[in-house]
Amino acid sequence: MSNKSKQSSTTTRSLIALAIASAFPLHAAMAQETAAAAEKAQPGQLETVIVTAQRRSENIKDVPMAITTLKGEKLDVLTSGGQDIRFLSGRSPSLNIESDYGRSFPRFYIRGQGNTDFDLNASQPVGLVVDDIVQESPMLKGFPVFDVDQVEVLRGPQGTLFGRNSPAGVIKFDSAKPVIGKTEGYASVGFGNYSAVNAEGAVNLPISDTMAARVSVQSQNRDDRVTNYRPNAPTKEFEGYGDHAARVQLLVKPTRDFSALFNVHARDMKGSATLFRANILKQGTNELVDNFDYDTYNTDGGNEQTLKTKGASMRLRWDLEGMTAHSITGYESADFYSRGDVDGGFGAVYAQPMGPGFIPFVVETADVLPSHRQFTQEFRVESNNKGPLQWIGGLFYFSEDIQIDSISFDSLAPGNPQNPFYAVQTQDTTSWAAFASVNYTVSDKLKLRGGVRYTDDKKDFAASRIEATTSGPHRIHSDSTNVSWDASGTYSLTKDTNLFARVATGYRAPSMQGRLFGLADRPSFADAEKALSVEAGVKQELFDRRARMSATVFQYRVKDKQLTAGSGTINMNQLINADKVTGQGVELDFQAILSSSLQMSLGGSYNDTEIKDTNLFVQTCGNFPNTNGVAGCTVTGTPGTIPFTQLLDGNPLPRAPKWQGNFTLRYSTPVANGEFFAYTDWAYRSTYNMFLYEAKEYKAKSLLEGGLRVGYKWDNYEVAAFARNITDEMQSVGAIDFNNLTGMVNEPRTVGVQLKASF
């Protein structure tokens, strides 16, 4: 038999075996057990994935929790069109990301748990950690992704090692670090439709035998692509932006046992706020209206958004006898302004016509973060010996001071905005924690882990409304403590197959919100939520490390779940607690080298969430009928005893699709002195409720989006063409329930070319 025939036969058998292994992973692993693979990947094998989910560098197979990683070419592909951090949505099982603010204020959901609150003071149950620094404010969480070594998505409560406000999970970013004694770097530039220009680069600079620096920059730019044809409108063009970010790191390693890493970073973004589009949904359905025109947005309101963030960190490490000590100090600040026409069109005031469609009232607002400061300090000590007992212990301190202004405008009013109405809220937060974790190797097959964390949170909150008369300040003081813990274990069924199980708790501190309105001025408050999660799974390496699979089943319960209820009639939110929320599901991650030319990955999840509170209800849309006397939307859930309300018992969590899936396939072949490659990626999610209540118009359609990148690599150069949302799928992915069927749509298709050079 020829070598070519042998290769074809081997590939065919491998594909069949991979399909069997996906359906029956444990049996396949035991039936095909072979000699241990070398730790370093050989040609035709998958790389070993090293993660720091437990604050140590470990093989992902040995960590007893559900983790997905993204790095390298996959990140390059997903960010080809200048995408912001929302490109990660659906790229990990059970992960969803969306925003009511565009490129700022991303909202993260893991296993259905997130927060739909649009207030700048909103907390989230998904933690975000960048270079070991927690990013608490929503304005910090959208920092551009560039020159990143790896992204880790940790699913399930992370209350022991990562602390407060992570009962759903943590997304962890690790930037590429300076390397002593090595000069290297890259530069990339891309051009796309809508006159998009995206540039990115990094350079590693050796300074001496003990010092090195790494400078990383990114600039993403696009012209406006949506036009306002209203005469005398404050803003005529929308959806262009200039988003610039930089990171400078300095590594100092004067001795073998000590190192210091300094990090300074900043972002400067200017662009458009999200376009809320009035009456774009057909009544009684979730379909866009006939002849929907993405390129047109007629409004009487102003629109602009600016965001500036800056920060610095210092990470010190001492390798001592039997232990390693860490000190991690971080500072972050943000300055934000976002103004938009929330009613999504032009209202019938000042003898002006109404449109598009029925708009019952004018709403034009700005949200401002004029003052923000965050400081964090962590001291951590961990064992570094070779014995069966390993441990970690530490202290953590967090401090944040913020001021938020909410301003009401009316662009058609004489003299506006000389005397705008606005509300002000301030919040000072301090939190400290002590934590410890122990790992014990019982045998060469069984490893056990356990951890505990004590947290003390204090918040001082005040809110005032300033109009013709002043209301407030209304003050809230909150003092909350919590003990979080986790216990887990890994059992090596075979040398290539690990079983794991984990029980963990999580905690989210009490939340306050101060959007005051009308005569019933009062801030809203939600008590702390506490989560308990149980999960079990299997992690395998298959076919001499040509494939890797991880599967997890989980179930969780959250007591006093913090939720955000809209008013149904005005631009307001209210915090509430549900007695209990439950969730359960299954997750799968799979990667494989199918042949010398083909590589693929496959991920998926099923999440079933349910609110359990027989007495909890919220207002729905529908208070204002349209010009035909028909309510604005079609409510389908169980009505409450009060008109225009709905009981929430039995409803799923909002923005929580039951089904999600992702798929990538990479083809490559040698051509001349280089390599031709094609990379396609797809992400699917099923329907979800946009709000706590259920309505036909506000149930998002299922969505399948795909991308393609085709290019050629030679020496240290690469040229590629790309397309994102290649099918140009367009639908409403969010809404404002103001009774005029106002929706927000996903990004249209983007195409372009990209050039990259490395050295």
From TrEMBL:
First-listed, main subcellular location of the protein, grouped into a coarse class: membrane
Signal peptide: 1-28
Location(s), subcellular: Cell outer membrane
PROSITE patterns (alphabetical): TONB_DEPENDENT_REC_1, TONB_DEPENDENT_REC_2, TONB_DEPENDENT_REC_3
TonB C-terminal box, short sequence motif: residues: 742-759
Motif (TonB box): 48-54
Membrane disposition: Multi-pass membrane protein
Listed InterPro entries: Beta-barrel_TonB (IPR000531), Beta-barrel_TonB_sf (IPR036942), Plug_dom (IPR012910), TonB-dep_rcpt-like (IPR039426), TonB_box_CS (IPR010916), TonB_rcpt_CS (IPR010917)
The TonB-dependent receptor plug domain, residue ranges: 60-170
Annotated TonB-dependent receptor-like beta-barrel domain residues: 290-726
Keywords recorded for this protein, A-Z: Cell outer membrane, Ion transport, Iron, Iron transport, Membrane, Receptor, Signal, TonB box, Transmembrane, Transmembrane beta strand, Transport
A Pfam short name: TonB_dep_Rec_b-barrel
UniProt record similarity statement: Belongs to the TonB-dependent receptor family.
Entry protein name: TonB-dependent receptor
